[in-house]
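Bench notes, afternoon.
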Amino acid sequence: MADAIAPDGSEITSLVRTDRASLVEVRLPAGQTSRPVRHRTVEEIWYFRAGRGRLWLRSPAGEATVRAVRPGTTLVIPTGWAFQFQAADGDLRFLCYTSPPWPGDAEAQPAGPGGL
């Protein structure tokens, strides 16, 4: 059961929180696409545990890329980068380590049109 719905629309289950970081599990149901957002102050590390899908990233300079994700994929979402993700084959589930710890929903800003 999810603890919250993230600003991008994904389901969040809180696992650990300290003064320096937080760890959650993120779930996006099969066939869904998240809303494009960017984080103002946090950096995240993602580790995909289940499902297959795609991730769109856009740097602050405007360079964009789309990457396939599956169980075992790891990646970094740098501070200020826009992103959007999509669950293609089954529910997409990943661990999300955030540093500093997630400060609240105002952290995520809409990132305009996404790339998925």
